[in-house]
Amino acid sequence: MTAKQAELSDEETHRSFFRDVLQNVRRIMTEKYGLNDVSIRPIGSGASRLSIPVRITGVNDRGKKVTYFGKILGSSDIMTARSIQFFKNIYLQMNEKDPIFGVSKSAEEMAREQYETLRAIHKIGVPTAKPFGYHWINGILWLVVVEYLEAKPLSEVRCVEQGQMELVFRYLRRMHRRNIFHGDIKPDNVMVGEKLYILDVGRFREDVPEAKKQAYDLACLICSFLECRPPEDIVKMAKKFYSRWNLRAAADYVTLVQRRPDINFNDETKNRLLRLLKG
Questions:
Q1: Which of 2, 64, 157, 166 is most buried by its number of CB atoms within 10 A?
Q2: Selecting from 3.40.50.1220, 3.40.1280.10, 2.60.40.1510, 3.30.200.20, what CATH number does the domain 1-73+104-148 have?
Q3: Are 50 and 77 in contact (CB under 8 A)?
């Protein structure tokens, strides 16, 4: 077999595999959600490092066209998550801080955790994509099905009003008071539409103190607004919901957050922010 033939054979294998995946997703949506004429379209998302996001449309038993958002999770997503969490923990240890990030053991566990955490967020009245279920596709692939939102991520919104920023801080504070911690707040996980939504979740180690989980969440949310609001406005808003001690704890994670590829701000902004948080 020539190199060209081998390449074509490999491409056909991948196409066949993906066709089988889509066929099983259609079966799930028909059996579990009563949809007919199911259509599945991948959604381009540079921010989605740990899944294949898809838009699922179909016709329900009342003849109405409906749309769901799906995430396909597999072993490669677990390996990516492990690498990201590993290097974040190493960075913390290099800076004399305890590691706080955990990883799921399997795609099934990741799907279940995302479903259960979103359900908990939704239950306390914080706007999020309503979770409907998680399902085995085939092999080691799992599907998480949630509400499809007509909204844009914060990363695509040029201007955020003071009232909108206040709402997001209020939602995060409500989550923390109920001992719900996000673990992966970033501009692409805060959506702006009819409401402001908090989406997706990360994972902390089970033995991490609540204060450290809260501090990291708070640091991530504060930094997520830096592309559309000055640090002074953000910290002033954060003070309405968190104590001075909470802000100082969040300051410990700002430099780590700056290293994330999905949250962008320069050193000058970071230094201004740190002075405000520690002041």
A1: 157
A2: 3.30.200.20
A3: yes
